[in-house]
Design goal:
Layout lengths: L3 E4 L4 E4 L7 E6 L10 H19 L3 E6 L17 H8 L4 H18 L15 H14 L2 E4 L2 E4 L15 H6 L15 E6 L7 E3 L2 E6 L1 H13 L3 E7 L3 H16 L4 E7 L2 E3 L14 H6 L4 H9 L7 E3 L1 H24 L10 H15 L4 H16 L6 H18 L13 H16 L3 H13 L2 E6 L2 E6 L1
Parallel strand pairs: 3-4, 3-10, 10-11, 12-13
Antiparallel strand pairs: 1-2, 5-6, 6-7, 7-9, 8-9, 14-15
The structure holds adenosine monophosphate and zinc ion.
Amino acid sequence: MELRFRNTLTGEIEPFEPIEEGKVGLYHCGPTVYARPHIGNHRAFLFADLLRRVLEYAGFEVTQVMNLTDVGHLTDDADEGEDKLEKRARREKIDPWDLVEKVSESFFTDLASLAVMPAHHYPRATGHIPEMLEMVCALIEKGNAYQVGEDVYFHVPSFAKYGRLSGNKVDNLEAGARLEVNPDKKHPSDFALWKSDPDHLMKWESQFGPHGFPGWHIECSAMSRKYLGDRFDIHTGGEDNIFPHHECEIAQTEALIEKSWVSTWMHTRFLQVDGGKMSKSVGNVWTLDDVQERGFSPLDFRFFVLRTHYRGAMNFTWEALKGAAEARRNLADFKGRLEASAHGAVNEGVCARIDEARELFQAALAEDLNASAALAVLFDLRSDFLQGDLKTAEEASAALSFLLEVDGVFGFLGPDEGIISLSDEEVESLIAEREEARQSKNFQRADELRASLMEAGIVLEDVAEGIRWHRI
Ligand code: AMP
Ligand code: ZN
């Protein structure tokens, strides 16, 4: 598979070429653990999971890192405002460290119920303060950062390529009236690498003073560097991460390493709710608990997300989730029916229809993760099957093994899913096939068919007149 990804840095869909042959380093901006992730956040995490699975399917050895932001993410996403985590801890009079534990646990529970493959590393910002301070000091030494009192700022005009990712060049930013000039800064777009605040609940002693904490951007630069090295292949996040977060990450890291840092930047679009922004004040922030309370499986939500391209507009409504749940059930049903008729090992090349489907599936995924087109291949196969194709045991085996291959990438079927709702005609036809197998003394096949029928809730009775059956 020749993978091509859309790189936010160039705005183009480009062939993917790893830095080291056969290996890929992936970094995703994870949750700020001040509140349980909502389903919008999960769109971003599911995108990360799809990317990792597709890379593995294409044969790469992947190292995936997703951080947990447990300090330093301020309410305005830059260096003004309150720390999101501390704000909540103060309001609810709880210990910020307890809040981190509680929210992180719910994050991991959510990921497991969404069948997200665990990343190789989940670094927490508070566990990597020395690595951040090391970078901050190195940037001061290089002349890209400066200390004012106990704070340290990155000097944006010292990095000529600033704005390459987001288009927010220094000149445009200067012209933007939005920036209130902080007298401590040499330039209005300079951003904090390290801040001091005696009232901050989570704080560390450093060479800059007794009570400091890191800026949000330096966290991801330091943590990705620790686990993936100076340069790595793909960095992702939601579209809101492009600016200022990723633009600032690039500036401080490339200023330090003096070469280009991440090859490919990929961003998923926001999940919207009822056509608008998901926001707590509107009361439309849904979590996976809400999804389950309304009778859906988290896998229905996973399937809902996968059906749309990661860069496509996605609007969440309960009606749309219902549609996704039905479509997913149809595929589970397809799996069940294939299981009922599959028999024997799959020999490659035995079924041209499946080989063709596989080619289409891979081509769709390879072109910037076109998951919806890739899934359409499976739905086409199901239609063919329902119209009478792929009915021999060998064809059904090939189709089943392809379906499992697809699910290895999409992960939308639970381990026990393959609900079979056979029609009366299908039951009769499987019973007839079993009779034939028995007559030709192929008892193994006859037993397999009986077992498949049982799984579908069909009980067979051998009576004087032949076979009688009923549903349980
Ligand atoms: P946060 O917890 O705010 O740091 O966000 C964690 C991740 O979720 C980031 O990569 C965000 O870009 C992403 N994100 C936040 N809201 C949404 C949304 N509505 N749709 C998709 N991704 C989102
Ligand atoms: Zn980040």
